[in-house]
Amino acid sequence: MKLDNIRLCVTKYKECFLFYHDILGLNLLLANETSTYADTGSSKVSLFNREFMAQAIGESNLPFESKSMDSFALIFEVDEVERKYKELQKKGVTFIAEQTVREDWGIKVSHFRDPGGNLIEIYESLEK
């Protein structure tokens, strides 16, 4: 079995589309009114309208949203966290916390959310 892509089922499809394309600069492979596929270089990320996905799998009767802790994070490796942090801030990204060196993880890291509330991490390895 081979993992093809990670699909984010989002509530704010248009805002998320613009965020991943315009702010994060992901290379689009396919895009339409309900789904988008983007190449990150080493893997693919797809965006899907959450309501459309629920209908497709017969679960449109479930609650649309609920408050809970994050169940996943999209993680992007970058050359320099500080440079990418400043670049994204200039584009309007609000970070959850300042950049942090996590010796126990072996990385420098920072976290933020997309317009749909999905957790995103950027990191650089401490071993260079």
From TrEMBL:
Gene3D superfamilies the record matches: 2,3-Dihydroxybiphenyl 1,2-Dioxygenase, domain 1
Pfam entry (one): Glyoxalase
Chain ranges of the VOC domain: 2-125
Top-rank lineage group of the source organism: Bacteria
Protein name: VOC family protein
